[in-house]
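Hey, can you fold this?
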Amino acid sequence: MKSLFFWIPMTCALFIAWIMLTGSLSLGSLTLGFVLSFGIIALSTRLRPDRAYPRRIAAMVKLFFIVLKDVYASNIEVMKLTLTSRPDKQPVADFVNIPLHIRDPHAIALLACIINYVPGTVWSGLTENDYILHLHVFGLENEADWHRTVHERYEPLLMEIFE
């Protein structure tokens, strides 16, 4: 029964996306859209052996607003660094290595999305055996700040949601 709750919303979402992309409500287009959306969902479930069961809705909402605030603040910071940089004084861009405590693959994937959403940061790799995140940061001033950001802002909420 749990898989049915996954199938119905995803099939409907793909079907609606098909209608919006084609711009046609003909019977043939609707039939093809339904068959394609159902087929894509049926085939893609076999590609994901691990299922995610997010738990705490309150933690998800809190994480959303934290990320929203970080994206906004980072946009302002990157804009300032870009507009005020001079040829003789360029902002520092460097790599930071951060050991992660989370092990759930879905939590790690969401952390990768969060880090890439925040302007000025790029997830550049993760070691498989010891879970060390390689992060590229534009405007890096203090490496410890990024350790604190990941360990205190993102990881506890991701652990609460997924582990």
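Oh, and this one too while you're at it.
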Amino acid sequence: MDAPSTVVSPARRIGRALGSRTFRSLRHPNYRLYFFGQLVSFLGSWVQSTAMMWLAYDLTNDPGWPAYLMVAQVGPTLLVGPIGGAVADHFPKRRVIQATQFAFMLNAMILTLLVSGDFVTPVLLVAMQFISGLIQGIDLPARLAVVTDLVPVDDVVNAVGLNSLLFNSARAVGPAIAGLFFVLAKGWADVSPGVDPTRWGAAACFAANSVSFLAVLLALSRIEVPAGPVKTERGSFWDGFRYLARHRGLAGLVLLTGCFCVFAWPVLTLFPAYTRQVLGKAEGTYSLLLSAFGGGALVGALTTATFGSHHRRGWFLVIGGAAGWVGLFVLLSATVLPLSMLACLFLGFGMVLYLSTGQSTLQTSVPNATRGRVMALWAMMLSASSLPGHLIAGELARRWPVPDVLLLMFGGVAVTMIGLAVLIASKPFPHQQ
């Protein structure tokens, strides 16, 4: 009698594929600890970011203030980015990240006390965000460069995709959690006259974020890496510029990414005003838009982690930019929530697919001795480009209807895509090192 054949269900085949391809970097214990610690921390960070943007808009009813918050977050990276890159190349990256995560935790705790004590003002929010941005300027180059210390070189592209996956999983879920805190605060205000639901909802979000940093601090303390200083070639921050000058394809990628961020990234700044002006809704709908954006970003990160390779990076850059372009068009045309959420899905997918592919291209093309400094330039370009983008978008939203601002951004992304197509056609990127 023949032995019964084993039939593998489609669901099981998909599960095996995800385990062997999408999540293969989790086989490495150090990276696994780092991944799950960062997941909790990123959740808290997105809860806080959502609360800060809505609190600033609620306090002022001015679309310019969320833009100021974004500028205060990314602007300081330009000031300390060179220092952060040098620190990442010359000191143990794990220790650097531990120090910055502890500083982030203190910042969130102070915010909690200020908001719950009713001392908060828009200017104070911007000041606290500026301090957070200074910390991020040291933290980001180390976090971008540490991946190569946690996984072998063959898994770097996958690990970068998974980092994007966890960040954007938090981006999808974090705003929903923040919305829940605001709903609970509103319920409390309904039975307790005199309670400000926005202030107490924001305070709960900030408190949750401060606790979330304990997860990544615990994970970092258990990662087994050499504790001594990193041995790198002696050099300065300018070595990063010199490397890009010798590899003009990578330099072009960095510059075009800056253009993409100028026109696409400020859409997040416009979400609070878009929610009220176009959809006529409140903070619950704002959280839904952010969650839809995060859901699309999650799909983009999964795509990078599962299918990303050196052979596909040109296509992924083009597809990501095109999806963001389509998302902007749908958003500026939409007047109902379902269509707006669909637009946000496209935006999240496209922006993350583009940025994670660009980041992994740099990660796998730059030698270890200068990787921290080159990644600092990448972080600085993202900040330098999004800073004027947020400011201009916020100022224009004061004078123009939000859909008109989105139309201008749509045109800018279209021009950037033409430049990207020319760059990809020249096949300029070096092979993995």
